[in-house]
Amino acid sequence: MDEQLRVGLVGAGPWAQMIHGPGIANHPGTTLTGVWARRPEAAASLAGSFGAEPFEDYSAMLSTVDAVAFCVPPGVQGPMAIEAARAGKHLVLEKPIAENAEVATELVAAVEEAGVASLVVLTRRYAPETKQMLAQLHRTGGWTGADSRWISGALLDGPFSNSPWRHDKGALDDVGPHAFDLLDAALGEITDVLAANVTDTGLWQLILQHAGGATSTVSLCLSLPMQPPFADFTVFGTEGHRTLTNRDTPALECFTNLLDDFVAMVDSGITTHECDVRRGLHLQRIIDLARRKAGA
C-alpha cells in the first residue's frame, strides 16, 4: 500500500497487549492509530506504549481509522463490529465473532452490505506448518476421520484465568473455533454435531459429521492442570495418518501473517478469504449447535 492502514484497536487486555498492539504497531502496512477499551486507564496505558491515541468514545475513534481490530469478548465484539462495518471500516475479528449465530448473521450482512474486508484471528491457520500440512492432506486425499485435543489449565492460572467470558462460556467458545476450523479445513465442511457432552469440570467432547462422510472427534478443556498444555490434531484414512503437533510459529508471527493478508485484501479491494467473517459465522453455528446438543 502507498500509505499505512490506520487501525483502531478495541480492547486492552492481555491478548491485546501481547499480540494485537505490537502486531499492528510494528507491521509495515499498518499503524496503530487509536485504542478504545471499557477501562479508559487500560486504553491509555496500551495506547501510550505504541504512540497511539486513547479514546473514551468509540464513535470518535471510528472517525479516525480505516480499520478496526477487536480484542474483546464475543458479546461485546458483535454489536461494535456491526457498527464499525456500517461505518465502512475493515475488520479484524476475534473468535467467536459474536454472542450467537443470530448476531453473527447480522454482522455478516453488515460486512457484505458495506463491502469491507474482514479476517478472523484463527491463529494456527496462519502458521506455515499448518498451511503445509493442509496442502499435503488435500493433495493426498482419502482421509476418513480425525481427532483433535486442546487441553490446558488456562482458567486455573495465567493471563486469561481472570477472564469472565471464558469462565462463563468455557473451552467450547474459546478454543473450540480453532479446533473446528482445522478439522473443517482438513476433512471438509462440518455439517452436523452428532453428539456433544460437557462435564462438571468443563471437559467438552464432541463427534462431528463432515460433508463427504468423514467424521471427527474433539476434546476441549481449559480447566485441567496440564503442564505444559497440549493441542494436537491427527487425520487418518486410506493413506495412513498425519499429525500436527508442531507449534513452533509464535502467535505474534501468526498474527503478522494475518495482517499481511489483511493489508493485501484492503489494497486490492478483495473482500473474501477462507478465514473471513463468513467463516466466523460457520464456526458460530457449530458452537451453538454443540451447546444445544449438550443441553448446556
Query: What is the name of the CATH architecture of the largest domain?
Result: 3-Layer(aba) Sandwich
- How many DSSP helices? 11
Unreliable residue runs:
none
Total domains, how many?
2
The spatial strand order of the largest sheet comes to 3-2-1-4-5-6
Domain GFO/IDH/MocA-like oxidoreductase: 161-240
GO molecular function: nucleotide binding; oxidoreductase activity
Domain Gfo/Idh/MocA-like oxidoreductase N-terminal: 5-117
Pfam families: GFO_IDH_MocA, GFO_IDH_MocA_C3
How would you summarize this macromolecular structure in one to three sentences?
The protein is of the alpha/beta class and 296 residues long. The protein contains 11 helices and 12 strands.
Explain the overall architecture.
It is a single chain. The protein has 11 helices and 12 strands. It has 296 residues and is of the alpha/beta class. It folds into 2 domains: 5-123 and 251-274, Rossmann fold (3-Layer(aba) Sandwich), CATH 3.40.50; 128-248, Dihydrodipicolinate Reductase, domain 2, CATH 3.30.360.10. β1, α1 (14-26) and β2 form a beta-alpha-beta unit. α1 (14-26) packs across α10. The N and C termini lie far apart (46 Å).
Main attributes of the structure:
296 residues; 2 domains; globular; Dihydrodipicolinate Reductase, domain 2; six-stranded mixed β-sheet; six-stranded parallel β-sheet; alpha/beta; Rossmann fold; 11 helices; 43% helix; 12 strands
Itemize the secondary structure elements and their pairings.
Blueprint lengths: L4 E6 L3 H13 L3 E7 L3 H10 L3 E3 L2 H5 L4 E4 L3 H13 L3 E4 L7 H14 L3 E3 L7 H13 L2 E9 L12 H6 L1 H4 L1 H12 L2 E9 L5 E7 L4 E7 L8 E8 L2 E5 L6 H18 L8 H18 L2
Parallel strand pairs: 1-2, 1-4, 2-3, 4-5, 5-6, 7-10
Antiparallel strand pairs: 7-11, 8-9, 9-10, 11-12
Helix pairs in contact: 1-10, 4-5, 5-11, 9-11
